[in-house]
Amino acid sequence: MPGVVEPETGLVFYELSHEWGHDVPMQPGFDEVRVYRSSTHAKNGVMAQRIRMVMHSGTHVNAPRHMIQTGIGVGEIALDRFFGSGVVVRIPKQRWELVTAADLEAATPAIEPEDIVVIDTGWHAKFSDSIEYFGRSPGLSKDAAEWLVKKGVKLVAVDTPQVDHPLATSLGPHRNGPQMKRIAREYEVATGRSALGDFPEWNAAHRVLLAAGIPTIENAGGDLSEVSGKRCTFHAMPWNFEGGDACAIRFVAILDPAGSFRLAAGA
User: Fold this and answer.
1) What is the CATH code for 4-20+55-255?
2) Per-residue pLDDT tens over the stretch 154-212
3) For 27-40, what is each residue's pLDDT tens digit?
4) What is the Cα–Cα distance from 132 to 130, expressed in whole angstroms?
5) How is 49-77 classified by DSSP, letter by letter?
6) Which InterPro entries does the UniProt record give (predicted)?
7) Contact predicate 131/180, CB 8 Å
8) Are 86 and 263 in contact (CB under 8 A)?
9) Is the dihedral angle over the CA atoms 135, 137, 141, 145 positive or is it negative?
């Protein structure tokens, strides 16, 4: 699907968010998003809705506060971290594979300091309330996170439900888990290796990024494939939520084919 062209400027906008709302696929262990109408057109002539949700729903940004006790919240993150140039790097991964530092080093376009980095594993195409999407997804290795910190990027987005491999999270045999009881055994049968042996640390990659002050976006999707392999300008503003651990966002990539606005042409 092509992006949306703004007729006055020629800028092309691409949706990188999954559709959000009632029945959005949720991380196992989290309550469902509940949307209900407290005022209706039929009764009051006006629509007003209430929402009850975990902030980690749909396409969302995580602040350092999410995993780092002394970290800043969503509303305290500098605005320029959510807007600017960066890359969508295509790193295809299959069930339970890891995105490594070597993958990032070899990725094209090249990742530069101060980039917003969006990692397209292809997993966004599986977005659904399913064991496959949440429990068998790829994730970042700890060395990949350390590589991104050393490179000096300013935001990292993934098209998976969590930054880390699911067996390095509470979905597997770690703190508060397992939230998905079958996946550790499935992994061990499929690989002949121990889940805890392969993933001894809890959320290692995510904690490395957040401890360095790098916000993360999970569940990137939408038209991501349309800009995969391109350098883009990104916009992902969250709420001004002081102390917030996370926030649902509208995530957008922008291309400037004519180069009139000094935004990335996507070439």
Assistant:
1) 3.50.30.50
2) 999 999 999 999 999 999 999 988 999 999 999 999 999 999 999 999 999 999 999 99
3) 999 999 999 999 99
4) 5
5) EEEE--SS-SSEEE-GGGT-TT---GGGS
6) KFase/CYL, KFase_sf
7) yes
8) no
9) negative
